[in-house]
C-alpha cells in the first residue's frame, strides 16, 4: 500500500455496512478499513441479545467480505468508539480518519469532541450521511431546507416532496393512480388467509460464534435464540426479494392488521437490515415499483411500501436532526407514570394484546408498526408513562432500534410528547384493537365494557386520558366532538370510568419494572 493511501483510515460505523457508501474505500489501494466494536455501547442499556448478536455478526461478515476482496481490515473491540479509532490510527499511522456523519447524536458528539481534543491521533473528516454516498436519501442541508419556515412538519407534504424529487410513482407532476396515498384501502383484517412463512437465515459459524459471545457477556435482555435475521448483504437481498415476491402483494391490504401468533403478517421485516446498511432504501423502493410494473403487486401495496421508506423513514430522520437534543426531554403532556413491568416481562399481564406484543418482542426483537403504535405506544400514552422510559424500552428491546429512528417515533408519534409533527395523539380505546386484531376473542377482559373489573383496560384509560387532557384537546377539530359523548355519560358513569381507569393503572403498575441502567450517549 502506498504512503498516500495509508494516509486515510476508513471508519465504518455499525450502521454503514454498505460498500457503496462514501466512507468505504473503492479499491484496496485506497486505504485500510476500521470497524470498532464499542463495549460502552453494548452495555449502554439492556439491549435485546439478538440485536447485540446481529450487530456483531453483521460487522464481522462485512469485514470478512472486504478481506476476501483484498482490503486491509482492522477489527478492534475497544472501551468506546473514540478509543477504538485512536487505536486504529496508532496501528496504521493514518494521517486522517474518514467516516460518515454518525446517525446518533451522542456518538457524533463524542467522536467530534475526541477529534477536537486531539484524542484520535489524526483529524476526523465526516462525510455527509445523506444524498449520494450517504445512508439517507436527503443530506442534512436538504432536510433542513425542506423544513425551513414550516411551523409544523407534516409527513404527507414531505412525502409528496420526496415522490416528486425522486420521480417515483409519478404520472408527470401528479401521483400515479390519481392519489398520493392509498392508506384507506389498507385497513383489512385477514379472514382465513395465512401469511407465507417468514424468511429465516439460520446462523452460520460466524453468527453462531457471535451469539455465543453475546450470551457469554452476561448482559442484555430477550431470547438470543432462535436467531434468523439476515446478517450479510447477500442474505438481506434475499430477504428483500422474498418480500417482494411473497408478501408485497398483500402488504397494503393487511398493513394495519394484528393476528395472535403472527407478528410479521405481510410486513417486510427489512428494518434491521436497512438500518445497518445491508440494504439501501432506494433499491427496496425500486424493487417494489418493478413489481408494480410487472403486474405482480397492486398499487395500494406498492404505494404503501414506498410511503414507509421514502416518506416515513426519511421524515423521521429529518425530525431527529431538527429536534435533537431537545427531543429526548420532550414531555408536553407532562406524563410521569413509570413503565409497567409487563413491557419487560410478558408474564406480568393478563391483557391478551399486550402479552402477545411483549412476548413477540422478547422472543424476536420485532413487532410490526401497528403493534408498536396502537398497543405498546397507545398503552404508554393512555397511562401517561414518562416518555424517556418508554423510549429506552423501545431502544433496548427492538432489533431495528437506534435513537435516530425510535426517539421520533416514540416521543413524536406514539406519545405525543413532542409537538413537532403530530397534530393529535394516536389515542385509541379497545375498539380499535378489536377491529384490527383477533386478540380480544381470547382475552379475559371484555372489549365492549368501559367500567367494572372486566372492562378492557384500554376503554376506561382512553376516556380518563381524554378527560385529563380536556383543556388541550377540547377545541381540536377532530377530537373536540368526543367531549360531547363523554359529557353524555353522566356523573355516575364518569365516576365509574375513573375508578376503572385507576384500577387498571394500579394493576399495570403493581409490579416494579427491573432497575436497569441506561446511558443514551454511551459509545
Ligand atoms: C413507537 C414506535 C417505535 C418505532 N421504533 C422503530 C425503530 O426503532 N426502528 C425502526 O426502524 N422503525 C421503528 N418504528 C417504525 C416502524 O414501526 C418500523 O420501521 C417497522 O415496523 C419495521 O418493520 P418492517 O420492516 O416489517 O416494516 P414495514 O411495515 O414492512 O415497512 C417498510 C419499511 O419502512 C420503514 N418505516 C416504516 N414506518 C416507519 C417509521 N414510522 N419510521 C421509520 N421507518 C419506517 C422501515 O424501514 C420499514 O422497514 C417505530 C414505530 C413506532 C410507532
Ligand atoms: S379486550 Fe382489551 S386488553 Fe383484551 S385483547 Fe382486547 S383490547 Fe387488549
What distinguishing features does this structure have?
DNA Cyclobutane Dipyrimidine Photolyase, subunit A, domain 3; 523 residues; 3 domains; binds flavin-adenine dinucleotide; binds iron/sulfur cluster; mainly alpha; 5-stranded parallel β-sheet; Rossmann fold; 22 helices; two-stranded antiparallel sheet
Ligand inventory reads: flavin-adenine dinucleotide, iron/sulfur cluster
Between the first and last Cα atoms, what is the distance in angstroms?
31 Å
Instruction: Kindly report the spatial arrangement of strands forming the biggest sheet.
Output: 3-2-1-4-5
Output the structural class: mainly alpha
Largest pleated sheet = 5 strands, parallel
Q: Tell me the helix content.
A: 40-55%
Q: Please, how many domains?
A: 3
Q: What general outline do the C-alpha atoms trace? A: globular
Low-confidence stretches: none
**Which topology of the largest domain does CATH recognise?**
Serine Threonine Protein Phosphatase 5, Tetratricopeptide repeat
| Number of beta-strand segments | 7
Describe the structure.
- This protein has about 525 residues and is mainly α.
- The protein folds into three domains: about 5-125, Rossmann fold; about 140-325, Serine Threonine Protein Phosphatase 5, Tetratricopeptide repeat (Alpha Horseshoe), CATH 1.25.40.80; about 340-510, Orthogonal Bundle (DNA Cyclobutane Dipyrimidine Photolyase, subunit A, domain 3), CATH 1.10.579.
- Helix content is about 50%, strand content about 5%.
- It is built from 22 helices and seven strands.
- The strands form two sheets. A five-stranded parallel sheet has the order 3-2-1-4-5, sandwiched between helices.
- Strand 6 and strand 7 form a beta hairpin.
- Helix 3 crosses helix 8 (about 205-215), helix 7 (about 155-165) crosses helix 12 and helix 16 crosses helix 17 (about 405-415).
- It is globular, with a radius of gyration of 24 Å.
- The model has no long low-confidence stretch (mean pLDDT about 95).
- Iron/sulfur cluster binds near residues 443 and 447.
Amino acid at each position: 500500500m502506498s504512503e498516500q493511501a495509508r494516509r486515510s483510515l476508513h471508519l465504518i460505523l455499525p450502521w454503514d455496512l454498505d460498500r457503496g457508501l462514501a466512507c468505504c474505500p473503492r479499491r484496496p489501494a485506497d486505504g485500510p478499513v476500521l470497524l470498532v466494536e464499542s463495549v460502552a455501547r453494548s452495555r449502554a442499556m439492556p439491549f435485546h441479545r439478538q440485536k447485540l448478536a446481529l450487530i456483531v455478526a453483521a460487522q464481522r461478515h462485512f469485514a470478512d467480505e472486504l478481506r476476501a476482496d483484498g482490503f486491509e481490515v482492522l477489527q478492534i473491540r475497544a472501551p468506546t468508539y473514540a478509543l477504538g479509532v485512536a487505536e486504529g490510527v496508532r496501528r496504521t499511522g493514518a494521517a486522517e480518519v474518514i467516516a460518515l456523519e454518525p446517525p446518533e447524536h451522542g456518538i457524533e458528539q463524542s467522536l467530534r469532541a475526541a477529534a477536537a481534543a486531539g484524542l484520535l491521533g489524526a483529524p476526523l473528516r465526516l462525510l455527509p450521511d445523506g444524498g449520494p454516498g450517504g445512508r439517507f436519501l436527503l443530506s442534512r442541508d436538504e432536510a433542513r431546507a425542506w423544513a425551513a419556515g414550516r411551523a409544523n412538519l407534516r409527513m404527507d407534504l414531505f412525502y409528496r416532496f420526496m415522490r416528486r424529487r425522486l420521480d417515483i410513482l409519478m404520472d408527470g407532476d401528479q401521483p400515479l393512480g390519481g392519489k398520493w396515498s392509498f392508506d384507506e384501502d389498507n385497513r383489512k383484517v385477514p379472514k382465513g388467509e395465512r401469511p407465507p412463512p417468514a424468511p429465516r437465515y439460520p446462523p452460520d459459524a460466524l453468527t453462531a460464534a457471535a451469539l455465543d459471545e453475546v450470551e457469554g457477556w452476561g448482559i442484555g435482555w430477550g431470547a438470543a435464540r432462535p436467531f434468523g435475521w439476515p446478517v450479510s448483504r447477500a442474505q438481506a437481498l434475499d430477504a428483500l426479494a422474498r418480500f417482494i415476491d411473497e408478501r408485497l402483494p398483500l402488504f397494503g391490504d393487511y398493513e394495519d392488521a394484528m393476528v395472535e401468533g403472527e407478528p410479521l403478517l405481510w410486513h417486510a421485516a427489512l428494518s434491521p437490515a436497512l438500518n445497518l446498511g445491508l440494504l439501501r432504501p432506494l433499491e427496496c423502493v425500486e424493487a417494489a415499483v418493478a413489481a408494480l410494473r410487472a403486474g405482480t403487486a397492486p398499487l395500494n401495496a406498492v404505494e404503501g411500501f414506498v410511503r414507509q421508506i421514502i416518506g416515513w423513514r426519511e421524515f423521521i430522520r429529518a425530525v431527529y436532526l431538527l429536534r435533537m437534543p431537545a427531543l429526548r426531554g420532550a414531555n408536553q403532556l407532562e406524563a410521569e407514570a413509570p413503565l409497567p413491568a409487563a413491557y419487560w416481562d410478558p408474564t406480568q399481564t393478563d391483557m391478551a394484546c399486550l402479552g402477545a406484543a411483549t412476548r413477540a418482542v422478547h422472543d424476536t426483537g420485532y413487532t410490526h408498526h401497528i403493534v408498536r403504535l396502537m398497543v405498546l405506544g397507545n398503552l404508554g400514552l393512555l397511562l401517561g408513562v414518562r416518555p424517556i422510559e418508554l423510549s429506552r424500552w423501545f431502544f433496548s428491546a427492538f432489533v431495528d432500534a437506534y435513537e435516530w429512528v425510535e426517539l421520533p417515533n416514540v416521543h413524536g408519534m406514539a406519545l405525543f410528547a413532542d409537538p413537532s409533527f403530530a397534530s393529535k395523539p394516536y389515542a385509541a380505546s379497545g375498539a380499535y384493537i378489536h377491529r384490527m386484531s383477533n386478540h380480544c376473542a381470547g382475552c379475559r377482559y371484555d372489549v365492549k365494557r368501559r367500567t367494572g373489573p372486566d372492562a378492557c383496560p384500554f376503554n376506561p384509560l382512553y376516556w380518563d386520558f381524554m378527560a385529563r387532557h380536556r383543556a388541550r384537546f377540547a377545541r381540536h377539530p377532530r377530537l373536540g366532538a368526543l367531549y360531547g359523548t363523554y359529557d353524555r355519560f353522566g356523573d355516575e358513569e364518569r365516576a365509574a370510568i375513573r375508578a376503572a381507569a385507576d384500577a387498571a393503572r394500579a394493576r399495570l403498575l403493581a409490579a416494579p419494572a427491573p432497575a436497569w441502567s441506561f446511558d443514551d450517549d454511551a459509545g
